[in-house]
Amino acid sequence: MSQITIQSPKHCSKRELTLHRFRFNKKLFLSFLISIFALIVIVWLTLHPSKPEFSLTAANINQLNLTASRLLYSSIQLTLLSKNPNKKIGIYYDEMHVFGSYKGQQITVYSYIPPFYQGHEDTNLVSAALTGNGLPVAPSFSYEVERDQTAGRFVLVVKAGGRLRWKVGTWVSGKYRFNVNCVAMMPLGETLGLSYTRIKQGSQCSTTL
Questions:
Q1: What ranges in the chain are assigned the alpha helix state H?
Q2: Where does the Late embryogenesis abundant protein LEA-2 subgroup domain start and stop, copy by copy (predicted)?
Q3: Are 80 and 125 in contact (CB under 8 A)?
Q4: What percent of the chain shows pLDDT beyond 70?
Q5: Whose CA is closest to 141, among 169, 101, 110?
Q6: How far apart are CA 62 and CA 76, in angstroms?
Q7: Is the dihedral of CA 101, 107, 108, 109 positive or negative?
Q8: Which stretches does DSSP call E strand in 46-122?
Q9: What is residue 147's three-state secondary structure?
């Protein structure tokens, strides 16, 4: 014969109180999470960080040698001006690399920039020495350079990229990938063996996040 257990009104009342507290704590926790999320969204929308601005202020092509086996030896010295346009947001540049490109072909290896912090509306000069030692290039490379020599200018493309973080007060965001693309029209010497060129005016760059 099975035993029938009948709970007293006191036990039922205690159970309902525990259930009520659980539901109340759950609602309180959800309200807290929603409030924190709403606060972050409000701060983000209010401050709305603008992407950093870059410009190419100087570039020297000290070497541009192409061997008979289509291996390129290059040496480029350049300076980038980095600006943080935000009045209340700092930027941590955790990773940053720079390389040179010509007509869609990479002509130097990556040059890595040490991490740095950029304060509100601050500017920084970033210098890099780009080199390429025996980089293979397409058969059309020599033809493209010779054609540009005839025109008397060399279209240098400087690309940079990496990861950054935003800093608002004591709060620091997660990492965001950024890419920079700079195009400079540079005068080019008569010979491909050893060319020395310099840009005299800054070249504005495009930045994507």
A1: 9-47, 141-151
A2: 79-182
A3: yes
A4: 77
A5: 101
A6: 6
A7: positive
A8: 53-66, 71-83, 90-102, 105-106, 111-112, 116-118
A9: helix
Give the pairing of strands 105-106 and 111-112.
unpaired
Kindly state the tokens that stand for 129. 């020495």
Contact 90, 118 (CB under 8 A): yes
Helices (H), 67-202: 141-151
Burial of 81: CB neighbours in 10 Å, binned 0-12, 13-18, 19+: middle
- At 195, the pLDDT band (50, 70, 90 cuts) reads very low
Residue 81 Ramachandran class (φ > 0 left, ψ -120 to 50 alpha, else beta): beta
Q: What is the pTM of this model?
A: 0.74
Amino acid at the residue 95: E
Q: How many residues does the chain have?
A: 209
The torsion defined by the Cα of 159, 132, 138 and 101, in degrees rounded to 10, comes to 10
